[in-house]
Each structure stands twice: as C-alpha cells, then as structure tokens.
Design brief:
- With 300 residues, the protein is an alpha/beta fold.
- 47% of the residues lie in helices and 13% in strands.
- It has helices spanning 2-9, 15-22, 26-38, 42-60, 67-76, 84-94, 171-185, 204-212, 229-241, 251-266, 280-299, and strands at residues 132-142, 145-154, 159-166, 191-195, 215-219.
- It has a 5-stranded mixed sheet.
- A hairpin with a 2-residue loop joins β1 and β2.
- It is elongated.
- It starts with a helix and ends with a helix.
C-alpha cells in the first residue's frame, strides 16, 4: 500500500522524501516497481491456475469436498501432481471450505425382544460385495415433521444398496430397505445383515423376512454407534453434506433430496477414504475389472 502511494505521488514529490515520510526504503520501492512491471511470478500464475481448477472441483462437489478429496480430483481427473498442503493453502486463500462430520445416532432398543447374535464383532471388512451389509435408521427433519430413512450399506465398497423412507418407524420401514438391496444386488450367497438392537430389527416380522430372503441377521453387542460405525458414518455425511445445508419444507421434498444425494452423488461420485478416495461405484467397478484380469491370468 505504501509503495503504491509513492507511485501515485512521485510526479509531485521526490521519491526519497516520500519513502522517508512513509517509513520505507527507496530501494524497496524500486524493487516493488520492477516486480510489478514483470507481472506475477511463475508460481503465482500457477497458483491462480490451480485455484480455478480447485474451485471447479469444489463447485462440482456442491461445496462439500475438503482438501484431501480435492487433491484426489486434481490427481485423477486433471492429472496434476501437487502436494495436499498446497491445495489446503490455496483453498484457504480462496475462502473455500468443505463440510465436516459431527456426530453419530442410535436407535432405541426393545429390551423385551430377543436379538440376533453378533456375527460381526466390529470386524467391518468384506473381501467381496454382498457378504456383509450394515443397516440403520435416521430421521430427516422437514416442515411437516420427520421423514424416517432406513438404509442398507455394503461394507465392501460403502455403497448404499437399499433404502426406504416413510413418515413412520414401523417394522416395514426396515424390511423394505433390505428388500430393495436384494432386488438390486441379487446376492449369490447368504449375506449377513448387521444392525443395532433397535426394536424394528429385533422384531419377529423382521426375522421372518430375513429367513425368507436367506439373509443372516446380526445385531451389535452394546447398542452404541461404535458397533455400527460404518452406517453411522454415512448418516453423519448425509447430515452435514445435505441436511444441515438445506431447509426441507415437506416430506416429498426431503425424499427427492435424499434420493438425489444417494443415487446422484454418494454412490457414483463421492470419494471415500476407505476406498482409496474412490466412490463406491467406481471402487466396485475397478475391483470387478481387477478380478476379471486375475481370472484371465489364472486360466491362461
């Protein structure tokens, strides 16, 4: 600012006098003048180019992504090799920020119901799709009251493979979600369906539906979010990336928004750290190609 003032007034006053009054050096002014004439440095120009690409990816994520996922977008989509700290710095400078997960939720258990055994014991890993599904219920606030959402998540890829929404939390809500998962995924072997000890998941009707579909029900040991952490993590993402950022007036509006989030963003596009920053759909696609190649080599 002081050098700019000197540049404005140097036609009327001596540069040395202006520099002395403003408390800067005459040499410093001429150095600033030469830098201005040369224009921005190569690094500054590169930072400006990178900032525009970062802004594009940030906008494409609906302003959800933070530096780690933006860093992956730059590497995989644009082929740009750049440090994650530089991405974080450029985002701060540009005033770009993502969203942060905050909390988990639990379901109220039915103490009178006989719960299924814990077949998972916090070992939330699966080598193939349709081996282990986790499930839970959350509520979506709207101007008309709560919309309840039940989901089924495939642990292999973190993909939401089944969901159901209703204005109630009766047992049919949690039976409709795995029914959708079975219809979409067509599991070839018996799959474990793991949930907390919520009353809907320990009901007789839910157990009968699992038996009919050849699904093995499993419930956690403690009824806390840590024993169903993967599904709770999805709900935390849904909350901070969608629900906290929109006022949903009606239940139909909420249904459309949740559907668009799952089908249009979370499954096909949202990068997930557990998948090496690949989206659930892309992770499954690459793993399927890898298996095809391995099978081809095995038979060659």
């Amino acid at each position: 600012m002081k050098f700019r003032l000197i540049d404005t007034e140097n036609d009327h006053h001596d540069v040395s006098l202006l520099a002395r009054v403003l408390g800067v050096s005459r040499q410093g002014y001429y150095l600033w003048l030469r830098r201005r004439e040369r224009g921005p440095s190569a690094r500054a120009r590169r930072d400006a180019e990178l900032t525009e690409k970062i802004r594009t990816h940030h906008t494409a994520s609906d302003e959800i992504y933070r530096a780690p996922r933006i860093h992956t977008d730059l590497r995989e989509i644009d082929g740009i090799r750049i440090g994650r700290k530089r991405v974080a710095r450029l985002m701060r400078t540009a005033g770009l920020s993502g969203v942060t997960q905050r909390r988990c939720r639990t379901t109220i258990p039915d103490r009178r119901a006989a719960a299924a055994s814990d077949l998972v014991k916090r070992q939330f890993t699966a080598e193939k799709p349709n081996r282990l599904w986790t499930a839970d219920i959350t509520h979506v606030p709207t101007g008309q009251g709560f919309l309840y959402l039940a989901v089924v998540l495939d642990v292999f890829s973190r993909r939401i493979v089944g969901w159901a929404m209703a204005d109630h939390m009766r047992t049919e809500l949690v039976t409709d979600a795995p029914a959708m998962a079975i219809h979409q995924r067509r599991p070839s072997t018996e799959v474990i369906h793991h949930s907390d000890k919520g009353g809907q998941y320990t009901s007789l009707a839910f157990g009968q539906r699992c038996a009919q579909a050849e699904v093995r029900p499993s419930t956690d040991r403690t009824g806390t979010c840590f024993d169903n952490a993967i599904t709770e993590s999805f709900f935390a993402s849904l909350e901070c990336e969608l629900l906290d950022r929109r006022a949903l007036r009606t239940r139909p509006e909420a249904e459309r928004a949740v559907f668009a989030y799952i089908k249009g963003f979370y499954n096909p596009r949202r990068r997930h750290s557990a998948n090496g920053q690949l989206s659930p759909a892309e992770y499954e696609r690459r793993q399927a190609l890898k298996n095809v190649h391995q099978d081809g080599y095995a038979t060659a």
